[in-house]
Design brief:
alpha+beta, five-stranded antiparallel β-sheet, two-stranded parallel ribbon, 3 helices, 7 strands, globular
Length: about 100
């Protein structure tokens, strides 16, 4: 089990007002990730490599990656947050661009 906190950020998501550095992991590796609750995003890709967000939630990373999705998931993004209120503000900012 790999802890997200021990890994360097490897991606970023641009919201309407801020840029959020995060961890991106492929679907096959996501169940091996552990960490505190964070913003979890399931994404799929269409050609030519355009990301689309399928589901976004404040959740435990491991539990989120075990959910059933009605799409083929390409990767997961995990954004660290301080608390639920902070998470809701970030989700609103991201959805203003990606929603």
């Amino acid at each position: 089990m790999e802890k997200l906190q021990n890994m360097p950020f490897n991606s970023k998501i641009v919201g309407a007002e801020n840029v959020y550095y995060c961890w991106e992991t492929k679907y096959s590796q996501a169940r091996k990730m552990s960490g505190p609750p964070c913003i979890c995003i399931a994404s799929y890709v269409t050609l030519p490599k355009n990301y689309h967000f399928h589901r976004i939630a404040f959740s435990d990373p491991q539990e989120f990656s075990k959910e059933k999705f009605n799409r083929i998931i390409y990767s997961f993004f995990f954004i660290p947050v301080e608390d639920l209120d902070n998470a809701m503000d970030i989700i609103k900012d991201i959805l203003a661009v990606w929603g």
